[in-house]
Amino acid sequence: MEFRDNKAIYLQIAEYVCEHILLGKWQADQKIPSVREMAVELEVNPNTVMRTYELLQNKNIINNKRGIGFFIADDAIGNVKAYRKGQFMDDELPSVFRNIYLLGIGFDELQSRYNTFVKETFNA
């Protein structure tokens, strides 16, 4: 995984976990890698992964079954979407809107590009 400088690593790992859930790679009640396994896989400090897992537990995306490990929560998909949607709306959308306004991009052009993106990316 390539980490970006503009965002905390533990948040980038949270995005990684959330993406695995949204793409269906990790299902409800499925065990996920342990803190140590994830740290080795991503080449980060285990404390960083633990911080990620604590965040995801607080958002009800994963659960810790003491002595067994971490598992995807039953309602993880809905909770991931709510968490990620809030982040997107608060952090990224204002910048997107600013660029749309400054560049004079119309909503028709955006809709067309969005439809093409979805078709090429998810319906291939």
UniProtKB/TrEMBL annotation:
CDD domains: WHTH_GntR. InterPro entries: Tscrpt_reg_HTH_GntR, WH-like_DNA-bd_sf, WH_DNA-bd_sf. PROSITE patterns: HTH_GNTR. It holds the Pfam family GntR. Keywords: DNA-binding, Transcription, Transcription regulation. SUPFAM superfamilies: Winged helix' DNA-binding domain. Residues 7-75 form the HTH gntR-type domain. It comes from the Bacteria. This is GntR family transcriptional regulator. It comes from Pedobacter albus. The lineage of its organism: Bacteria, Pseudomonadati, Bacteroidota, Sphingobacteriia, Sphingobacteriales.
